[in-house]
């Protein structure tokens, strides 16, 4: 084997490893770690698991947004939504007077795991932002669309993970095939 072939093989496997790392996301805080709230009775009929749900944000200056659809986790601990903001400047949220801290890494968009207490109606929340220099609590409402509840695989993040994994498989497979063909040619 020559040096070029070794470097090419290394690059293929290194690229596949990077793609696999990109497919991983930071785990959200477990729903069991948060005190239960009284959720909408309709979502109590859902089996325990993770779902996608469409959410709309109202209030504030209109500059901020949240990812939609978002993750909806149903368990014995309650019903929780993983709210991901468009900004990294939110440090906590208040839902029914209970504080929920940002679970994202510093510099990443703010992420909160909050209880969902109502569906198809505005749910009042307060989010504290530090974007203006000094912290300010801003009132918002989140509306979760019950009819949009679907499989977790409908989340854009989940689709991106599947694409990254498939790309990694194709790259690794291509690298192995390339290696085998080059080895066969060198023997002939």
Ordered list of secondary-structure elements with their pairings:
Layout (H helix, E strand, L loop, with lengths): L2 H21 L25 E11 L10 E6 L2 E7 L5 E6 L2 E4 L9 E5 L7 E7 L6 E16 L4 H32 L1
Antiparallel strand pairs: 1-2, 1-8, 2-3, 3-6, 4-5, 4-7, 7-8
Helix pairs in contact: 1-2
Structure commentary:
This protein is α+β, with helices and mostly antiparallel strands and 188 residues long. The chain has helices at 3-23, 156-187, and strands spanning 49-59, 70-75, 78-84, 90-95, 98-101, 111-115, 123-129, 136-151. It folds into 2 domains: 1-27 and 155-188; 34-152, Sandwich (Immunoglobulin-like), CATH 2.60.40.1850. It contains 2 helices and 8 strands. The protein has an 8-stranded antiparallel beta sheet with strand order 5-4-7-8-1-2-3-6, with no helix packed on it. Helix 1 (3-23) runs antiparallel to helix 2. Mean pLDDT is 78; it is low at 18-37.
In short:
By secondary structure, the chain is of the alpha+beta class.
Number of strands: 8
Q: What are the secondary-structure elements, in order, as H or E?
A: HEEEEEEEEH
Task: Count the DSSP helices.
Answer: 2
Mean pLDDT: 78
What's the domain count? 2
Level-2 CATH architecture of the largest domain: Sandwich
Strand content: 25-35%
Main β-sheet, spatial strand arrangement: 5-4-7-8-1-2-3-6
By secondary-structure content and strand pairing, the structural class works out as alpha+beta
Rough outline:
elongated
